[in-house]
UniProtKB/TrEMBL annotation, chain A:
Keywords on record: Cell membrane, Membrane, Transmembrane, Transmembrane helix, Transport
Protein name: Cobalt ABC transporter permease
GO terms classed as biological process: transition metal ion transport
Domain PDGLE: 260-350
Gene3D superfamilies xrefs: 1.10.1760.20
Entry keyword Lipid biosynthesis: no
InterPro entries: CbiM/NikMN, PDGLE_dom
Organism the protein comes from: Streptomyces yokosukanensis
Membrane-crossing residue ranges in chain numbering: 54-73, 80-105, 125-144, 156-176, 188-216, 262-281, 327-348
One Gene Ontology cellular component: plasma membrane
From TrEMBL, chain B:
Physiological role: Part of an ABC transporter complex. Responsible for energy coupling to the transport system.
Gene3D superfamilies in UniProt: P-loop containing nucleotide triphosphate hydrolases
Classification via Pfam families: ABC_tran
Name listed for the protein in its UniProt record: ABC transporter ATP-binding protein
A GO cellular component annotation in the UniProt record: ATP-binding cassette (ABC) transporter complex
GO BP, sorted A to Z: cobalt ion transport
Membrane topology: Peripheral membrane protein
Annotated organism of origin: Streptomyces yokosukanensis
Molecular function per GO: ATP binding; ATP hydrolysis activity; ATPase-coupled transmembrane transporter activity
Family from the record: Belongs to the ABC transporter superfamily.
ABC transporter domain: residues covered: 24-254
Region (Disordered): 1-21
Automatic annotation (TrEMBL), chain C:
CC per GO annotation: ATP-binding cassette (ABC) transporter complex
InterPro entries: ABC/ECF_trnsptr_transmembrane, ECF_CbiQ, ECF_transporter_component
Cell membrane among keywords: yes
Organism (species): Streptomyces yokosukanensis
Name this polypeptide is given: Cobalt ABC transporter permease
UniProt keyword list: Cell membrane, Membrane, Transmembrane, Transmembrane helix
Keyword match 4Fe-4S: no
PANTHER family reported in the protein's UniProt record: SLL0384 PROTEIN (PTHR34857:SF2)
Main localization, broad class: membrane
Top-level taxon: Bacteria
UniProt membrane topology term: Multi-pass membrane protein
Length: 363, 268, 250
């Protein structure tokens, strides 16, 4: 999915560049908090920043893992994008930093992804994948029973969603600043279809990797830190609502703001998702597949789909009114879903807190 | 025979009268990790300026924990560490870190900058040295370990032995009061081992060498400390300690097959 | 892109382009690509002129054509998609060789191919004439935030160490008779990735300790700095300026 120069027009590239820069600035600050204290050497934290060495090593890891090809079927293989993996293992802010640096270096050192398309690539592959996957991951953990198995399941779903989400954001960017006229239906069909397949591979590997790390050093899995922390709260007999678990370790003040950030990002992500899924659903069914099939080029396309994230190029200029309204309906639908979902979430949490209190007083 | 000398531990941290002659004083040092695991149970010892001392001990004895206390990376327990008269604590952290040079076990961890030269310059530059003075520090430090011609190489293009020598240089460039080496001989082939020993012998700094490698300790350090279960179990001449079979057995220290400390002539 | 990242693009040399300060080259490459991207696709001859400009730079830098062309292969996946465009794009259609092609799609394919290729060629020229270390210094000089430069420099320093560990793990797997053949073996690969993460993260912690031990307190001391004279800037910016002139004429 490394977008080269010329796919997206200059103004859109510039805007995404600004978006990416802003997100990086926020991430730099967030990462400092995330890497504050995970390790055995808590005492060392006060002495100096850990972000640079840790994020640098994790970036090297992501870089290496992207080279780890997993065989999909005879002759073809795919590789990880790593956004979801990074977000779950080291936290969303550090994740954004790591994947962005990997993209930057790939662009500058390997000519992989255009220089002017850096903003597009960072927005798409670093920011979208990490933010969406982390939002999904946290939301699932909040609902699922508090077990290690749930972390695996949540990682799976988070990674699965993150890849098509990146495809959707790409489609969006293309709708705004694409340089070729192809109907949005075709772009969406092709991008999402192909990336759901890629997402499955990403999901399996991400989930297995996360569970492998959890088995050995659970304290290193940022996304599961809350798991540990909340169990501790039980023993103390504290009745306070355990806040969004990832942040239980930091000061209460930051936990609160971060929970809000999380909630907002989750909301935005699901709005974007839903808006687009309905777009997709209402698009013309005779999209790329049919054309490709008619022309006998579907085999070629399939091969590329598996070999690397593909598609990069279908423009979108003619958004019909019907589709816009379809998208709007989707956004409204998500609004309702989020409200209902939050209600369930609050209810569950309250009940859990009540369950906890007798047990802990018994101790 | 073991001479378990335990200087009276006092919590007073008044500037020691012997500050002119002692490089390092550790007294009554106890420490537990945040998870409750206690690693040190009152460590006491003194190293005088110019001494080369080996710190021996089995795995899990608390050696690394102790080393990380020497420059204040770990702290917050009881007891005091004094480096050349400076108590290790928040107020003198920068000065202490400059006086205590730790060479970590894996040179890849130690050499984190893109080139050898920048890596050696890191410590002095962090201490505010610039320009020609910085160049001079880097040059001297690399010369002392015989790596002057490698200044512009990236560390990962060097052999393991060369990397370990550069790691020593990174610390020497800070002109430390005391050099602390964590398992300096590990993973070295015999030739590199010899070269490193020659370098260490040629340096006129105080050395504390943490090691399992008993022959290496005997070769380089006239005096040894045995750290076991979080306390100093023995302190004395290295040869005498190694000949004390009972002591060795009690602290899981084993000499390599066929090595007899009696047969080695000690040239102090 | 698969495993294509293992090799680096840098090609050692002493040409005038090699010796330019890195930040001037970065700025020049970026500005050039920006001009290319902003050029309307109908100005076909302008793209030809850009290609000639790049060829001049390549000659100046003594980068052989074969080397450059081989590195352009990274673009191949996108060429495939560009080829698809005329089939799927909307609008007026033309018949050619018995196929119905969209005019818009043809333009789109041309646009992407031309701009993409020029962009990749510019990046390849930059990477093949600038050392890794220099690139980082250049980015630092161009005011990329210091923490990002640090992260990038740690990534490059430890990239080889981490990939080497990965390679050793693969050899260990294979010497015990394991070969990843299909979906069934994803689990094993993931376990390796998990182990690799733990090793990387723990190394990060140790590196941090080593840094703190030598007086690190949050900011990297600036040891090397690159500077450029006015003449060097002018030299480097010749390329984007020439491109701009072409673009304005077009």
């Amino acid at each position: 999915m490394h977008v080269p120069d010329g796919f997206i027009d200059a103004p859109t590239s510039a805007v995404t560049g600004v978006v990416a820069a802003g997100a990086l600035a926020v991430s730099l600050r967030g990462a400092r908090r995330e890497q504050g204290g995970t390790s055995r050497a808590d005492e060392a934290d006060r002495a100096g920043e850990r972000t640079a060495p840790l994020a640098g090593l994790v970036a090297a890891f992501i870089f290496a893992v992207q080279m780890l090809n997993f065989p999909v079927a005879a002759g073809t293989s795919g590789h990880l994008l790593g956004g979801a993996l990074a977000a779950i293992l080291v936290g969303p802010f550090t994740g954004v930093l790591c994947v962005s640096v990997v993209l930057l270096m790939q662009g500058v050192l390997f000519a992989d992804g255009g220089l002017t398309a850096l903003g597009v690539n960072v927005t798409d592959m670093a920011i979208t994948t990490t933010v969406v996957s982390y939002a999904v991951f946290r939301a699932l953990l909040a609902v699922l029973p508090r077990k290690r198995r749930s972390v695996t399941v949540a990682s799976f779903v988070a990674a699965l969603v993150s890849v098509p989400a990146a495809a959707i954001v790409f489609t969006l960017l293309y709708a705004i600043g694409g340089t070729t006229d192809v109907s949005i239906g075709k772009v969406a069909t092709a991008m999402i279809g192909v990336h759901v397949l890629i997402g499955i591979g990403e999901a399996v590997i991400t989930a297995l990797t996360v569970s492998a790390v959890i088995a050995v050093r659970p304290d290193l899995v940022y996304g599961a830190r809350g798991l540990r922390q909340r169990l501790k709260l039980r023993v103390d007999g504290a009745l306070v609502d355990a806040p969004a678990p990832a942040l239980a370790r930091t000061a209460p003040g930051t936990a609160r703001t971060s929970r809000r950030t999380l909630w907002v990002t989750g909301l935005v992500a699901s709005l974007v998702l839903a808006g687009f899924v309905s777009f997709y659903a209402s698009a013309n069914p005779d999209g790329l597949e049919k054309v490709a099939h008619d022309k006998g080029i579907d085999k070629k396309e399939e091969k590329h789909a598996a070999a690397d994230s593909p598609l990069a190029d279908y423009g979108v200029k003619n958004v019909s009114n019907a589709r816009v309204s379809g998208g709007l309906a989707g956004v409204i639908g998500v609004g309702v879903t989020v409200v209902a979902g939050s209600a369930v979430f609050w209810a569950l949490r309250r009940r859990r807190a009540e369950d906890v209190s007798p047990a802990s007083t018994g101790l | 025979m073991s001479t378990a000398s335990r200087p009276a531990s006092s919590s007073s941290s008044s500037a020691p009268s012997s500050s002119s002659s002692s490089s390092l004083e550790v007294s009554g040092l106890a420490f537990a990790y945040p998870d409750g695991h206690q690693a040190l149970f009152g460590v006491d010892f003194t190293i005088t300026r110019g001494e080369r001392v080996a710190l021996l001990g089995p795995n899990g004895a608390g050696k690394t924990t102790l080393v990380l206390h020497l420059n204040g990376i770990l702290g917050g327990g009881t007891g005091t560490v004094t480096v050349a008269g400076l108590p290790v604590g928040k107020q003198h952290m920068a000065a202490v870190r400059q006086k205590v040079g730790i060479v970590f076990q894996d040179p890849d961890d130690q050499l984190f900058m893109p080139t050898v030269r920048e890596d050696v310059a890191f410590g002095p530059a962090a201490a505010g040295i610039k320009g020609a003075a910085l160049e001079e520090r880097v040059r001297t430090a690399l010369e002392r370990v015989g790596m002057r011609d490698f200044a512009d190489r990236p560390p990962h293009h060097l052999s393991f032995g060369q990397r370990r020598r550069v790691a020593v240089a990174t610390v020497l460039a800070m002109e430390p009061e005391i050099l602390v080496l964590d398992e300096p001989s590990s993973n070295l082939d015999p030739a590199s081992r010899r070269e490193l020993a020659d370098i260490l012998r040629s340096l006129d700094v105080t050395v504390l060498m943490v090691t399992h490698d008993l022959p290496y300790a005997l070769e380089l350090c006239p005096r040894s400390l045995v750290l076991s279960d979080g306390v100093i179990a023995a302190d004395g001449p290295t040869g005498a300690l190694l000949r004390d079979e009972e002591l060795m057995r009690a602290h899981r220290l084993e000499l390599p097959f066929g090595f007899d400390p009696r047969s080695v002539a000690r040239g102090a | 892109m698969g495993a294509g990242h293992a090799h680096r693009l840098y090609r050692h040399g002493h040409s005038p382009v090699h010796t330019l300060p890195p930040h001037t080259k970065l700025a020049a490459a970026f500005a050039f690509v920006l001009v290319v991207v902003s050029t309307p696709r109908e100005a076909m001859w302008a793209f030809g002129a850009y290609a000639v400009l790049l060829a001049c730079v390549a000659r100046h830098a003594r980068v052989p054509a074969g080397f450059l062309l081989k590195r352009l292969l990274i673009e191949v996946p996108f060429v495939a998609f560009a080829v698809l465009m005329p089939f799927v794009a909307e609008g007026e259609r033309v018949q050619a060789l018995g196929l119905s092609l969209s005019v818009n799609g043809l333009w789109g394919a041309w646009n992407v191919l031309a701009k993409g290729t020029l962009g990749v060629a510019a990046s390849v020229l930059l990477a093949s004439t600038t050392e890794l270390r220099e690139l980082l210094l250049g980015l630092q000089r161009l005011k990329l935030p210091a923490p990002l430069v640090q992260i990038a420099s740690f990534m490059i320093r430890y990239g080889d160490v981490v990939t080497d560990e990965m390679r050793r793990m693969r050899i260990a797997r294979e010497s015990r008779g394991f070969e990843a053949k299909g979906v069934r073996h994803w689990g094993v690969l993931a376990k390796s990735a998990g182990a690799l993460f733990i090793r990387s993260y723990e190394r990060g912690e140790r590196v941090h300790l080593a840094m703190v031990s030598r007086g690190y307190s949050g900011s990297m001391p600036v040891i090397d700095e690159v500077t450029a004279s006015g003449a060097q800037w002018r030299h480097a910016l010749t390329l984007p300026c020439a491109a701009l002139v072409v673009s304005l004429l077009g």
